[in-house]
Amino acid sequence: MSSMYDGYKKKLKEAGYKLTPQRIAILSAIEENKGLHLNTEEIYDIVKQSNPEMGLATVYRTLQLLEELEVVSSLNLEDGCVRYELYSDDGQHNHHHLICSNCGAVIEVEGDLLEELENKIEKEYDFKILDHKLKFYGICSECKNLV
């Protein structure tokens, strides 16, 4: 098993769970399609190719558990689907997202662009920020060039 799964295995074990073949298959589907922000049904379609016995309910339950354990993060793009990605393994904030209102493309913005703002908020409000999610809506370069 890849060292990529060592952190996941540890997190699951600490919470009293095992890294089962089903969980590995789901994590692999997300990892192998990094940046695509797959929804539950898309993950299921990928997983069932190599695990035809796995049901959609198993995928839903597993994603819920993995989200509770902060192994995966959900992303709601207000398109009726919840999408998933792996939590950042460097202990930093997750990246930000640019969402095209025309074609629905999702572009990841790496780096924490809000560090200065977070520090100001923490000082002014005596509030410890643990994480944040930020989405910008607009028109991507491809759609912008079509206009």
TrEMBL record:
One Pfam family, short name: FUR
InterPro entries with a match to the protein in the record: FUR, Fur_C, WH-like_DNA-bd_sf, WH_DNA-bd_sf
Lineage: Bacteria, Bacillati, Bacillota, Clostridia, Eubacteriales
Family: Belongs to the Fur family.
The protein's name: Fur family transcriptional regulator
Keywords noted in UniProt: DNA-binding, Repressor, Transcription, Transcription regulation, Zinc
